[in-house]
Amino acid sequence: MSAPDPAARVAELRRQLDDASYRYYVLDDAAIPDAEYDALLRELEGLEAAHPELAGADSPTQRVGAPPSGAFASVTHAIPMLSLGNAFSDDEVADFVQRIEQRLERSDPVFSVEPKLDGLAISLRYEDGRFVQGATRGDGATGEDVTANLRTVKAIPLALRRTDWPAVLEVRGEVYMPLAGFHRYNERMRAEGGKPLANPRNGAAGSLRQLDPRITARRPLAFYAYAVGLVEGAELPPTHSATLRQLRDWGFPVSAESRVATGLAGLLAYYRDIGERRDRLAFDIDGVVYKLDDYAGQLELGFVSRAPRWALAHKFPAQEQSTVLEAIEVNIGRTGAATPLARLTPVQVGGVEVSRATLHNADQVARLDVRVGDTVIVRRAGDVIPEIVRVVPGMRAPDAQPWQMPTVCPVCGSDLVREEGGVVWRCSGELICPAQRKEAIEHFASRRAMDIDGLGERYVEDLVDFGYVTSVADLYTLSLDDLLEMKCRGDERDGTTPDTVRAGKVATRWAENLIAAIQGSRRTTLARYLFGLGIQHVGESTAKALAEWFGDLAVIRRLPWPLFKRVPDIGSEVAHSIGQFFDQAGNQKVIDELLAGGVEITDARPPSAQLRGALGLADLLVDLEIPKLTRLRAEQLAGVFAEASALLDAPVHRFIAAGLPNDTASALETWLEDAENAGLLARCGEAIATLEKLIPEADATSAGPLEGRTVVLTGTLAAMTRDEAKSRLEALGAKSAGSVSKKTGFVVAGEAAGSKLAKAEELGIEIWDEAKLLAFLGKHE
Ligand SMILES: NC(=O)c1ccc[n+]([C@@H]2O[C@H](COP(=O)([O-])OP(=O)(O)OC[C@H]3O[C@@H](n4cnc5c(N)ncnc54)[C@H](O)[C@@H]3O)[C@@H](O)[C@H]2O)c1
Ligand SMILES: [Zn+2]
User: Fold this and answer.
1) Ligand 1 neighbour 310 (Cβ under 6 A)
2) Rounded Cα distance, 90 and 426, in Å
3) Which of 304, 309, 308, 373 is nearest to 343 (CA)?
4) What region holds the BRCT domain (predicted)?
5) pLDDT of 153-210, one tens digit each?
6) How far, in Å, CA of 446 to CA of 357, rounded?
7) Residue of 615, 609, 635 lying closest to 732 (CA atoms)
8) Is 412 known as a binding-site position?
9) Which atom of ligand 1 lies nearest, measured to the CA of 81?
10) 3-class secondary-structure state, position 95
11) What are the DSSP calls for 225-275, one per residue?
């Protein structure tokens, strides 16, 4: 094996670094983490030092940033914008201080010390106190003119305060994105399915280099000043720290964390102090900057190729690192939300070992296209959970598969269901899922549900953690002894063991009260009970509506989801989630246990008579969301087929005979061929038959004032939905139809009624406006 060839390695490093710089500075889309870039750069510096013949002016070690992209006009900096030498260890800082002491022949020099915010360096030019031009650093000599974008950053003054400003003033500083704004922006993007920002530095650089200033204006950018460039027509103070105060007086934000520090000890103390507070700062910092404070000393020290000798960036451990994604797991939260979680080969990030990171949601996994085995960049900043920000390109195994959300909850095995129209997946085992247990019990006991006074969050925690309760049903088997024992264990764990007679009495009173509250909750109303079950999307008013329409838990728990849509205010999403809840055997088992435990619903009654008119086949077919089957077609079918089950084995030509166009008929046939659909339709048919038997017969003596009349509703009503009006009219004996014909008894025309109203007028059919409808309904209440 031949020894590694330094010239080849140097060439390879330069290629890699140039490529990375281009992506980082020009595309604002870094491929590798900064820490890796820094390591490569150090390796190159080492090789160039050992082999001076390999060094060259075009090496990345000699250059600042990258040339402008050409998308903006270029700006030549009157005074170049340089980079900073950097240090990763205390020893390197000691060398820096020592070099300065030797060159200046003085000990314990004074430094201005500042946080190093991670954003984008810019230069702002003011003429006669007005902001005239702003530019990026670019390659240090030439930057990009981003004046229009900078004008949208509120922290940048457009005119200077006071009047003692120089005729020309260049201010240098960093545009950055504060963490709060960054997180808010990303949360919104994730909820809307948009593209989140990889990190705040990327957010700042990408936002500022937008071609449309309106986009920049919408991004939460901030600015702080840390230096001056060209100054004409005035003297600056003799030190950097005094200049910062001057800048603040002129109206520029200057970091409140800036200090003055003396000698090596002062620098390191400052570094430690901010380092400890790094996670709590409102912005990302990647280190601190030490600058010799007096300008005379700065001038004497001068520059090396790309950085001043009088300044140093002392870096903190990097907040982004690359590692391998070993697996994607799914975490179920307290409310049942499923979050994909990355298991990683452990890696140090920001000084902490990280082996897990969030992937937020299934959409995010798809957007990043992260796959098991990929090399990924993980980011940990502040007290936020570490997250995967991107996949490192070009390192994927050829057989890596795209990831998919599992179909069942990894904790309880219930179905995982996607919220309609949302990015969230949930476990539908609300009552049995151990992950959701505490939330379920707290909700069940809450005041507007079963109202168990005294069962607060803390006791729910203890009951579950110590194993006294695994589901809401277990509450009804708790004994006084159980509660006393639990309280003892809780006190012991908290280190408070007041073993006195008085404490014993207090505990006994507490336990007795809680038992009494649990007993008292046994008799409840159906609405409270349904609300207490904690079905996703079922709030108090939906629970009330369900109770009012269906009357009895025994009925509700057996209904297939489409029938829940018969309740006027329940839409598809809610109907689905109620159906999914009752489809889980585990949830049903807990309901059985509650009944066995003596929970009694005091207001059970037959289904509402309003339901009678709402159980037609046409409505059901519409609710089933069968492709191509419009309401009109559904009504045609319902006119021929008496009930749902008759559709099940009907050959397609019978659908055509019923008046369906060929494509609709075959879409229906295809839908019915799916066993799950056929099963659902059959269940719906049976449920309708059962409901019809349960609904009390209308009083035989009064056959309903609208008996024998057909009504067509059209347009929009103000006081109620059309569905609601329809079911109320049907409760009074009317039959409803979807289109106007000679057989129509009367038409209810709301706001913006169209062709149906015209047809009714043409046929001379009786027309009711909303006022007449309301008057009629009022009279027959
Ligand atoms: N990931 C990648 O692919 C990639 C590629 C290129 C560069 N980088 C990263 O970019 C950085 C190198 O860029 P650099 O040459 O600008 O060096 P630098 O960012 O380490 O230091 C110089 C910059 O610090 C900033 N700064 C912040 N606070 C300051 C203060 N108080 N006083 C003075 N300056 C302050 C200024 O923008 C200045 O231009 C490294 O962190 C490197 O990892 C990453
Ligand atoms: Zn679950």
Assistant:
1) no
2) 49
3) 373
4) 701-781
5) 999 999 999 888 899 999 999 999 999 999 999 999 988 878 899 899 999 999 999 9
6) 34
7) 609
8) yes
9) 39
10) helix
11) EEEEEEEESSPPPSBHHHHHHHHHHHT----TT-EEEEHHHHHHHHHHHHH
Tokens 């309708």 belong to 688
Token pair recorded at residue 534 = 């904690």
Q: How far apart are CA 227 and CA 242, in angstroms?
A: 11
Pocket test for ligand 1, best of 116, 117, 306 (most atoms within 8 A of CB): 116
Looking only at the bridges linking them, the beta strands covering 735-737 and 600-601 are unpaired
Residues near 194 by beta carbon (within 8 Å), at least 6 away in sequence = 188
Ligand 1 mean position, distance from CA 83 (Å): 7
| Residues present in the chain in total | 781
Instruction: Compute and round to an integer the Cα radius of gyration of the chain.
Output: 36
Q: Work out the end-to-end distance of the chain between its first and last CA atoms, rounded to an integer number of angstroms.
A: 98
Rounded Cα distance, 390 and 365, in Å: 10
34 is in an annotated binding site: yes
Tell me the two tokens of residue 82: 């340089």
Q: Where are the alpha helices (H) located in 400-550, listed in sequence order?
A: 437-445, 457-465, 480-494, 501-520, 526-532, 540-550
Q: What are phi and psi of 715, to 5 degrees?
A: 75, -175
Q: Which residues share a beta bridge with 114?
A: 289
Closest CA to 390 of 31, 39, 119: 31
Respond yes or no: is residue 116 known to be catalytic. Answer: yes
Q: Which residue type occupies 205? A: A
**Which amino acid residue places its CA nearest to atom 7 of ligand 1?**
21
Give the residue whose CA is nearest to atom 44 of ligand 1: 34
Closest CA to 621 of 574, 660, 651: 660
ipTM summary value: 0.96
User: Is any ligand 1 atom within 6 A of the Cβ of residue 114?
Assistant: yes
Q: What is the DSSP letter of 414?
A: P
Mean pLDDT score of the chain: 92
* DSSP states along 626-637: -TT--HHHHHHH
Question: Residue 114: nearest ligand to its CA?
Answer: 1
Going by alpha carbons, the residue nearest to atom 29 of ligand 1 is 116
Contact (Cβ atoms closer than 8 angstroms) between residue 263 and residue 296: no
For 427, half-sphere exposure in the C-beta direction (CA atoms, 13 angstrom radius) is 29
List pLDDT tens digits, range 238-281. Answer: 999 999 999 999 999 999 999 999 999 999 999 999 999 998 99
